[in-house]
């Protein structure tokens, strides 16, 4: 049996969702039927969406613990061409703090609780129990790999895995850049007397929400940033007169979650947008 396939099956049996990597430590590219996200970028697992692609071509989203998938014909041929095995930390309820150099390791030893450590080519992986949002370059030489990310399997390492500390979670929390909305966006008056708020005109408000949903749905990259900026735009235009309802907010959250955002991420983005606008 191929060495990478054997490792993948062993890891999957231990609960680590695995995927093959090609040379350069990157996933195998999308197949022709899934090119340009034509299938919605869904993995080939039944619970994840409509894509029926038989190959491991969806990056971290293709990671699976199903031995029938891992040993299927297309996957088996891919393992023969693979350069390494990767896994989805968040899918195994783990977070990997990727320390890329000696300075980063020194910082971790001074600031983070001890946990399981795995040597890498240039540094170390510190593995904690508990998932969180992945983020790159949270500080010099430090990346966080957990949900919606993959980490290369480099062996079991040494030490005992400990609980994910708030210190690590805090690394991925970035304050939104100050945004100064247009003056008219902040001055939508509450209706007074017989004057009807224009937001209650179905076409006006519906068009705004529909455009926001479309912007999120059509984003091809920087999904976190797109969701935050879209929430900011909706709140700046429709958020001060009381016409924005829970149903409207739910539509925006649904669009964001369809692109991979979690409910927690949506709530954080909404809260950050309100804070930026002083609401």
Please give a structural write-up.
It is a single chain. Residues 44-49 and 175-196 have low confidence and may be disordered. Helix 6 (202-218) runs antiparallel to helix 7 (223-238), helix 6 (202-218) runs parallel beside helix 8 and helix 7 (223-238) packs across helix 9. The protein has helices at 3-13, 67-70, 73-81, 102-111, 166-171, 202-218, 223-238, 246-258, 263-276; strands spanning 18-22, 26-27, 84-87, 94-99, 116-119, 124-129, 135-139, 142-145, 151-152, 162-163. With 279 residues, it is α+β, with helices and mostly antiparallel strands. The chain is built from nine helices and ten strands.
SSE series: HEEHHEEHEEEEEEHHHHH
The number of helical segments is 9
What fraction, in percent, of the residue positions are helical? 25-40%
Radius of gyration, in Å, reads 22 Å
Beta-strand residue fraction:
5-15%
Assembly type of the chains comes to single chain
How confident overall, as mean pLDDT? Answer: 82
Strands, total number: 10
Our measurement of the CA-to-CA distance between the termini, rounded to an integer number of angstroms, reads: 60 Å
What sort of overall outline do the alpha carbons produce when their principal axes are compared? Answer: globular
Give a quick precis of the structure.
The chain contains 9 helices and 10 strands. It is α+β, with helices and mostly antiparallel strands and 279 residues long. The chain starts with a helix and ends with a helix.
